[in-house]
Every structure is written in structure tokens, then in C-alpha cells.
Specification:
333 residues, ABC transporter involved in vitamin B12 uptake, BtuC, single chain
Amino acid sequence: MSEPVARVSPFAIAALLAGLLALLTLPLFLGKYHLHIVSSAMIFSIAAVALQLLLGFTGLLSLGQAAFLGVGAYTSGLLATGLKLPFELTIVAAGLLSGLSSLILVPILRLKGTYLGVATLGFTIIVHLVILNEEWLTHGSLGLMGIPRPSIGPWLLRSPAAAYYLYLSILGAACFVAYRLVIGRFGRALSAIMLNEDAAQASGINVTLYKAQAFVVSAVITGIAGALYAHHTQYLNPNDFSLWRSIEILLMVSVGGIGSIGGAVIGAFVVMLLPEALRFAAEYRMLIFALLLIVLMGLGQNGIAGLCVSAARAVSRRASFDPGRLERRELAE
């Protein structure tokens, strides 16, 4: 029996095409600095999509994303600077090692809600301390410098626009993988676990196995984002992978909309770009940013993505409204 095909509304398709067109043409209108900021937002969009698999589709609160990001970043950075491995190998190694490190969390997957969040927070603290104190490997507080720019085969992507399109391609691949996972049997099992874990267990779903698989997939994607971050900034500092980074990625998912892959991308761009847009406010910039975050969180669980969907439905209903049909109904009565 074939898998059911997910139905996508025409408005969603139109929004996707419009967003893709905007992203493809964006380098034509931005300078190097602003393109650097947008590229950073794109990299963190990948990490937000990874967290969405856990929080939005499995119901698992994780504050360990900064740890997976750091493992991926330092793995790729150390392999590139120490062993001079090509970018293609370092990014694969970063994803694999991040996935392997997530297996440490398998024993705590029986925890739920805030208990799981606190446990994964402890993992972030441990990884941050290892990066900070193991100077023989990570260079400690001095950070890791001299990381080369990303490359494809013999071509070094020196141009910010060329690197931008690489990040866009990987973001598209991450969104596609996440979408295919959540609409298939794996995604239905995760949804069942999120709705009622006991009922899912009684239905024959191996809850611990599916949770572990979700964590591994999320960690692999986050590790790849970490590798891109390392080669994009060309410098790593232990403070880049502290608790605040996990909270920042969680904010991206919450603001964009929990349970929406597109919402995770939108939320990442909002959280990353909004402080830059508020630079005119000088010392009040972060205060305004915090107030705007409170307002955006007031949209509820569906976030900005839910607001866009509601607006699209309202427009659709207005466009399909036929006053003559109402008059005909009144005459018939």
C-alpha cells in the first residue's frame, strides 16, 4: 500500500516559490556585510529545522542544540586546520560525530517536558566546558583560528555570494529531508508519540527507538550547520556554543511556529536579522528587540507561520465569496 501524499495548498506553494525567488536574487541587492549576516541566518535556519524535528514533531524539548552545533563546528574546524582535509570530508565528519555524540542522551529519553530540557541543558554545559578547558585540542578561550573558507572540489568559494548559494542549497536539502521524514511512516510515529506516548507504546511503536532516531537525525543536521558556521566565520570561540545559543535556536522555532518547517526558517531569519535592523536605536536596540520578541511570542504556538496561514485562509475565503450565491439562497428560501 502506497504512502499517502501530503496535500499542499496553492497559497503555500505560491509563498514557497516567492520566498525561493527572493532568496535566489538576494545577493544582487546586498553588500558584503549584509550578505554575511543573511548567510549566518541561513546557517542557523538549518539548526532551527533540526530542532523542529524534536520539538515540533516529537514533542521533545531539547536545550542541547548548542552542544551538537559546537561538536560539528570544532570537528570540521580541527580537521580542516590540523589534517588539511577537504571541506566535503570535514562537513560529513562533523555531521557523523554530532550524531554519535547524541547517542549519549539515549538513556535520558524516558524523561519528558522540562525534565528532558534540563538534562539536555547539562549536556550543553559539559560540551562547552570541554571546549573551553581542553586547550590541547580546541585552543581553549583563545579560540580556533585560520579555518579555511568552504570549497567544492578544487574551487574555493571566496565570493560571499558563492558561499551564500552553497548555504542556500544545504538549507533546501535539510528542509526537504525534514519534510520527507515528517510526512512518512517515521513522522506519523513521532506524531503519535507526541500526542500520547503511552498509546503509541500500546500500538506497538518502540518509543525509545524512535526518540533516539529523532535525536540522531536532529544532531546530524545540527552538526552540519556547525561545520558551515565554522567555515563561514573562519574563527570559533567557546562562547559561541554556550547555553544562550541553545536558547536562541529555541527562540527561532518558537517565534516562527512550532510544528512548521517553514516557520523554523522564518523564525531564524527574524531572530538573526531583527537586531541588525534595529541598529538605528543604538543602546535601546536590545530592549526593543526583547519587546518585539514578547509580542511575537504572543502569537501563540503557531507563531509567524500560523499567522501567515490564517491570513492566507482569510484572503482565500474573501476571494471565493460570491454575494450572488447568498442572494440566490435567500430567494430560494
